[in-house]
Amino acid sequence: MKVICPQCKKEHNIDESKIPVGATVAQCRACGHRFPLFEPAPKPALEPEAPKNGPRRIGVTLSKGGVGKTTTSVNLAAGLALAGYKVLLVDTDTQGQASYLLGQKPQAGLTELVTGELPAAETIVQARENLWLLAGGRSLAGVKRMIDRKDFGGELTLVEALEPVEKDFDFVIVDTSPGWDPLTVNVLFYVFELITPVSLEVMTLQGLVEFLKNLSSIQKYRSEVTLNYILPTFLDKRIKNPDAILDKLKDLYGEYVCTPIRYNVRLSESPAYGKTIFEYAPGSHGSQDYRDLVRKITGRPELFS
Predict the structure, then answer these.
(1) Where do the H-state alpha helices sit in the chain?
(2) Phi/psi-derived region of residue 136, left when phi > 0, alpha when psi is between -120 and 50, beta in every other case
(3) 166: closest CA among 262, 61, 89, 275?
(4) Whole-number pLDDT of residue 45
(5) How many whole angstroms separate alpha carbon 206 and alpha carbon 31?
(6) pTM, 2 dp
(7) Pairing between strand 56-60 and 261-262?
(8) Cβ contact 175:149 at 8 Å
(9) DSSP 8-state assignment for residue 106
(10) Does residue 131 sit in helix, strand or coil?
(11) What pLDDT was estimated at residue 63?
(12) CB neighbours (10 Å) of residue 108?
């Protein structure tokens, strides 16, 4: 029989003849979650429908830092824009690195939109053709405090700010900070799809398991948000260990695992020039791999050919 963990969505094949008499609970070997054995949760679609007449809302998130979240957010957004989609990139990190990667120095951004200090026209800047940016930065610390002070509805602060401006876009890509803070929770109450970059290191696998536990607590209140893509990053074929970790990821999460982003020095160099990987090194492995990600997310294998 097949059962699916309701927390991490890992599918398990179980030999019914080996199930102890009277057993009613199973434990997922991927995330450790315990769930009813004979009530398997339905498997979610890989690409749930976005709200009618609205964009696809995709969050790029993992509690651990240094896994390539901002690099993925920026280059995914840029790749979608190159494919002809109108894209809004939202930076919810106090470091504000998305602006740096795009060579932008906006005077206002997400903070001013959320607080109502400025209208959308003065906070959303066009960074490239088909690509717009809502910048993050240190001022977001004040937004976190504002959310904490709300008696109720604080988790919907980002929804209230973005829904009025999202109608002009095909995709909204949301970059998140490391850790677990009020803005990250807000992102999970706004987006419908999640991409989790996972650097091919043992500690990051542990971080993924912890993230899935936190996500499960959010899904109790908002079942619409699902983890759709696990993106392995920093794959270096010269080192043995990453291949073993990649195999483990595929074994645990199967079809959710995307084509890995290979280690590529050009990806590290491009931010210094304020360029995306498609602009800085269009023939590099990094550019090829992020094109593959765009094809997977759009379901259009013919793109960029």
Answers:
(1) 69-82, 97-101, 110-115, 120-123, 140-149, 157-162, 182-190, 202-219, 240-253, 265-269, 277-280, 285-298
(2) beta
(3) 89
(4) 44
(5) 9
(6) 0.82
(7) unpaired
(8) no
(9) -
(10) strand
(11) 85
(12) 18
Model pLDDT, residue 86: 98
Task: Report helix, strand or coil for 65.
Answer: coil
Residue 182, CA atoms < 13 Å, CB-side half-sphere:
18
Rounded CA separation 222/188 (Å): 8
Strand partners, 87: 131, 171
SS3 264: coil
Taking residue 259's Cβ as centre, other Cβ atoms within 10 Å add up to: 16
Residue matched to tokens 């970790």: 245
pLDDT band of residue 37 (cuts 50, 70, 90) is low
Rounded to the nearest angstrom, the gap between the alpha carbon of residue 92 and the centroid of all alpha carbons in its chain is: 12
Least confident of 29-33, 105-109, 211-215, 253-257: 29-33
Contacts for 240-245: CB closer than 8 Å, 24+ residues apart: 241/200, 242/200, 242/201, 245/200, 245/201, 245/202, 245/205
**In the predicted model, what is the mean pLDDT of residues 104-133?**
96
If pLDDT is split at 50, 70 and 90, which confidence band does 207 have?
confident
CA distance 22 to 238: 49
Check pLDDT > 60 for residue 64: yes
